[in-house]
Design brief:
Length: 279
């Protein structure tokens, strides 16, 4: 069901790779809510993914490739987007994350630091570059909204999430600090959303991911939030209904973040202990 939350608004969606991705679901939701879109991803991701299919479903939205570590690419992206829209932008989704160390199974205590720098640059500093480019070009309308996707591993230890936890911590810090400056200058709000573990192509690459999804489901009073649910929340954050929310890390995880332990987890632990004793 659509509510016309984004009627007349224009935005850029970073990171839609395939139908599993939160960025993909968000693009569809924003279009459903009345927004006009530009879709972007790294050139290699554009070749690997199915973004042209998404573009058609979003009213033939332009697809503009951009390397988020390259300021020239970002400048061209924003300039082309403003030409397409005939004016400034109202919202941006940052749904970007990559870790070579995680992909190659490097333990956190054995990081390859060259790969680690790439992880931080692509997964976190890219948000600063995007905001800096928009700032320099005065590309975002007053009361615009920027959302970046994060994860609770920025604040708690999830061993197999490894260096991505550091990247998410940096991402959230950039959100707060740049959010302060952008709020003062243009009333632009900048927030992160900390989503439940979600079966995206990127998320599934984390060791033990399927097991953790089951654990999070048991720990969350409402269960894990789906990618579709997250897309709806992001659309609300892009809308005028949340004009005074900025510099926040907003949990969208079915209550996982504030649950110490659940009855379902206790029961599972007791059953495991019982099996061990009987064995």
């Amino acid at each position: 069901m659509a509510y016309n939350l984004l009627k007349g608004k224009k935005g850029i969606i970073f990171g839609a790779l395939d139908e599993k991705s939160i960025a993909w679901k968000t693009a569809l939701k924003c279009y459903e809510e009345g927004a006009q879109l530009v879709l972007t991803n790294a050139p290699v991701a554009l070749r690997m993914g199915e973004i042209n299919k998404l573009a058609k479903e979003c009213g033939d939205a332009p697809v503009i490739g951009a390397d988020v570590t390259n300021m020239d690419d970002l400048k061209i992206l924003f300039e082309k987007s403003m030409v397409h829209f005939g004016g400034k932008i109202d919202f941006i989704l940052h749904s970007i994350g990559m870790s070579i160390n995680v992909r190659k199974g490097k333990n956190y205590t054995e990081l390859n630091y060259e790969w680690n720098q790439k992880t931080l640059d692509i997964s976190a500093t890219s948000l600063h570059r995007i905001l800096r480019t928009a700032w320099d070009l005065d590309a975002i309308n007053e009361w615009g909204s920027v959302v970046a996707l994060t994860y609770i591993a920025s604040q708690r230890v999830f061993p197999d999430y490894s260096e991505m936890a550091d990247a998410k911590s940096l991402l959230e810090s950039i959100t707060r600090t740049f959010g302060y400056y952008y709020g003062e200058k243009k009333k632009v709000r900048v927030n992160t959303i900390s989503q439940s573990p979600t079966k995206t192509t990127a998320g599934s690459g984390v060791k033990g991911f399927d097991g953790f999804i089951g654990y999070a489901e048991k720990m969350s009073p409402l269960g894990n939030a789906s990618a579709e649910d997250c897309a709806g929340y992001i659309a609300v954050m892009f809308s005028d209904m949340t004009r005074m929310v900025t510099m926040q890390n907003l949990f969208h995880d079915g209550g996982f973040s504030f649950t110490g332990v659940s009855a379902a987890v206790i029961e599972a632990m007791e059953n495991t202990a019982g099996d061990s004793v009987s064995g």
